[in-house]
From TrEMBL:
<dbReference type="Pfam" id="PF00990">
    <property type="entry name" value="GGDEF"/>
</dbReference>
<feature type="coiled-coil region">
    <location>
        <begin position="417"/>
        <end position="447"/>
    </location>
</feature>
<feature type="domain" description="GGDEF">
    <location>
        <begin position="358"/>
        <end position="490"/>
    </location>
</feature>
<keyword id="KW-1133">Transmembrane helix</keyword>
<protein>
    <recommendedName>
        <fullName>diguanylate cyclase</fullName>
        <ecNumber>2.7.7.65</ecNumber>
    </recommendedName>
</protein>
<dbReference type="InterPro" id="IPR043128">
    <property type="entry name" value="Rev_trsase/Diguanyl_cyclase"/>
</dbReference>
<keyword id="KW-0472">Membrane</keyword>
<dbReference type="InterPro" id="IPR000160">
    <property type="entry name" value="GGDEF_dom"/>
</dbReference>
<feature type="transmembrane region" description="Helical">
    <location>
        <begin position="12"/>
        <end position="32"/>
    </location>
</feature>
<dbReference type="Pfam" id="PF05228">
    <property type="entry name" value="CHASE4"/>
</dbReference>
<dbReference type="InterPro" id="IPR050469">
    <property type="entry name" value="Diguanylate_Cyclase"/>
</dbReference>
<dbReference type="InterPro" id="IPR029787">
    <property type="entry name" value="Nucleotide_cyclase"/>
</dbReference>
<dbReference type="InterPro" id="IPR007892">
    <property type="entry name" value="CHASE4"/>
</dbReference>
<keyword id="KW-0812">Transmembrane</keyword>
<feature type="transmembrane region" description="Helical">
    <location>
        <begin position="265"/>
        <end position="286"/>
    </location>
</feature>
<dbReference type="GO" id="GO:0052621">
    <property type="term" value="F:diguanylate cyclase activity"/>
</dbReference>
<keyword id="KW-0175">Coiled coil</keyword>
Length: 492
């Protein structure tokens, strides 16, 4: 009976151990599959993030190209009227291109004759125009384009835009080409989720194919294949142009640390089960609970890290957008509204005043004899005069007053809820403040004066009419001897 009891319990223990081992094997398989799926999802997300960032980089180049191609200074440089601007801002030894994240800048006329080209220090083609000519030839049939092209087996971003004046009043007189090289460091900076990145010359048959539509700056997935060897997840990503020609292929790798730790743990655990039957059952159950908890904590940590990275990228993107907004809406020299931004706010205020039957005044201001400063003392002194003038005006107007530079030495104010008489008084005060400006050059004290034209919205149907009246009055002040304020009240 005792023997039967032992045999019976022995069989029960053996059966229980076998069932437990089977249960452990099944549990191991399920967890491995789940974590394999998790690793695959993480890898796919990393690849998607990389492609999104490449797309964002193309869009960023496009924004920079649009900003610089609508610059009066570059437009005049192409016309041979402002030869100093480009050499001053993009001269050899400057870091302008590096600060913008670019590798090259090329300016041509409408016939694609190179007027100027500049390259960063780390480029291998900065001593010859062969690179510039090749890049121009690759996109010469298109007036405006953003894409990736090949040059000597290397890939480059390229953005081509026509060159206009800031107000787009004149037709284009040339083209601007900008871009940057796509190398290993560039991809690494965009793909923090991978262990290693490298360019390959002979891509395998099953790869991630990503087609780039050069017109819409659009990236789309084609097919995906992940290969795992020695706990390393390896993927290939190929980029094609819109004619399905291969541009470049990169191989990205990521170590599968989660699966590796789980396999080592289960090997040790099952070894203990063979020697410690009953104890192993309790031990496995306990360890299983700890491992599940560990996996949840690991997943939470991964999600937390990804969330932190995403928030950081969003913060950086916000700063970039703020900088781009300032570039697009602010006069770079005087830090006031540029012509386009001023007209936008002036029109909005006029419509609001017209709708609500409010008073509105416009003051046109022109620095007297400004050409003399440039001709006699040079453009650097002329720029200082503009800066001192703008700073003086800004210190003596309210935050609600719209102030902008329309071009050259001409500025304008829009004053809300103000009678014409009060606007004239304000202009007189500003005139006196401007007379206080003194600039010492070569032991000479230069005095600055300005002429003013003041108009209101009486009998005006649009903001352009107000500005035209103020401009005519400004011209009258100039003819009457300068350093004067003129309005319609002077002719009543």
């Amino acid at each position: 009976m005792k023997k039967n009891f032992i045999d019976k319990n022995k069989k029960i223990v053996i059966l229980f151990v076998i069932l437990f081992i089977l249960f452990g094997i099944i549990s191991f398989t399920i967890i491995i599959n789940k974590n394999s799926e998790l690793e695959d999802n993480i890898n796919k997300n990393n690849i998607s993030n990389l492609i999104d960032k490449i797309q964002s980089r193309i869009a960023y180049n496009h924004k920079i190209a649009l900003e610089y191609s609508s610059s009066d200074e570059i437009y005049n440089f192409i016309k041979n009227e402002n030869s100093e601007y480009v050499y001053k801002n993009f001269s050899e030894g400057s870091y302008t291109l590096e600060d913008l994240g670019l590798s090259y800048l090329i300016l041509t006329d409408l016939k694609n004759n190179i007027k100027y080209s500049n390259f960063t220090r780390d480029t291998s083609f900065n001593k010859t125009d062969d690179f510039a000519l090749k890049m121009i030839q690759k996109v010469e049939d298109t007036e405006k384009i953003n894409k990736i092209v090949l040059y000597k087996k290397h890939a480059y971003y390229i953005s081509k835009t026509p060159i206009y004046k800031t107000d787009y009043e004149n037709s284009s007189n040339g083209f601007l080409y900008i871009g940057s090289k796509i190398d290993k460091e560039t991809i690494k900076n965009l793909s923090k989720g991978f262990t290693d990145v490298k360019f390959i010359n002979n891509p395998k048959s099953n790869i991630i194919k990503t087609k780039i539509n050069s017109q819409e700056i659009n990236l789309t997935h084609k097919e995906v294949d992940f290969k795992i060897k020695n706990n390393i997840n390896t993927s290939e990503i190929s980029f094609y142009d819109n004619n399905s020609n291969l541009l470049f292929t990169i191989e990205v790798t990521k170590e599968i640390s989660i699966l590796n730790n789980i396999k080592e743990f289960y090997l040790i655990m099952f070894s203990c089960i063979l020697f410690l039957a009953i104890f192993s059952l309790i031990y496995i159950s306990y360890k299983y609970k700890l491992e599940v908890k560990k996996q949840y904590e690991s997943i939470d940590k991964i999600v937390e890290n990804k969330t932190f990275q995403l928030n950081k990228e969003l913060e950086n993107l916000k700063k970039v957008n703020e900088n781009l907004y300032d570039i697009a809406h602010t006069d770079f020299l005087t830090k006031t509204m540029n012509r386009r931004n001023f007209f936008m706010h002036a029109q909005k205020n006029f419509l609001d005043a017209q709708k609500n039957d409010l008073l509105l005044c416009v003051v046109m201001i022109d620095i007297d004899n400004f050409k003399k400063f440039n001709d006699q003392y040079g453009h650097n002194i002329g720029d200082k005069v503009l800066v001192l003038f703008a700073e003086k005006i800004k210190r003596h107007i309210t935050d609600k007053t719209i102030f902008g530079r329309l071009g050259g030495e001409e500025f304008a104010l829009v004053i809300r809820n103000t009678k014409l008489e009060d606007a004239i008084i304000k202009a007189e005060k500003l005139k006196k403040k401007i007379e206080e400006i003194e600039l010492i050059v070569d032991n000479k004290t230069l005095k600055i004066t300005a002429s003013f034209g003041v108009s209101d919205n009486q009998n005006c149907s649009n903001i352009d009419e107000m500005l035209q009246k103020a401009d005519n009055l400004l011209y009258t002040a100039k003819e009457s001897g300068r350093n004067l304020v003129r309005s319609r009240l002077n002719f009543c």
